[in-house]
Design goal:
127 residues, alpha+beta, seven-stranded antiparallel sheet, globular
Length: 127
């Protein structure tokens, strides 16, 4: 079962829209709605995983938390620059290596939600 928790902001206030028994396409639609302003955070719960996506437009950060580890999706960028993106209504600076495009977000979702055999680069932090 997949549950989506989509944050919608109105200034300093946030509403959470929940989609129960969601499909992969509904997950992708929620990510596509992310604009980095009023929609900048989506959490997807599936089995033991909490998949958190922040940002919007075409700059995202993906963190997956399970009971045994935290996975941060990595881009192919090796630069040490920091990029400012908004996550949950808060502007944050992240190293460039964490900023990914929509296509990588979709691949990560297919990996975790559909058990697809996709080769992605992750930073893994054991709990």
């Amino acid at each position: 079962m997949i549950n989506i928790y989509e944050e919608e902001r109105e200034g300093a206030l946030a509403n959470t829209i929940e989609h129960s028994h969601a499909s992969m396409e509904q997950c992708l639609e929620a990510i596509r709605r992310m604009n980095g302003f009023t929609h900048s955070h989506v959490t997807i719960q599936h089995r033991d995983n909490m998949i958190m996506v922040g940002g919007g437009s075409d700059e995202f950060i993906v963190t997956v938390e399970s009971s045994i580890a935290i996975h941060n999706l990595l881009s192919s960028e090796e630069e040490n620059e920091f990029v400012e993106i908004t996550v949950g209504g808060q502007a944050c600076e992240f190293p460039q290596k964490y900023i990914v495009r929509f296509e990588l977000v979709e691949s990560a979702l297919r990996y975790f939600l559909e058990d697809a055999s996709i080769d992605l680069e992750w930073e893994v932090i054991d709990k």
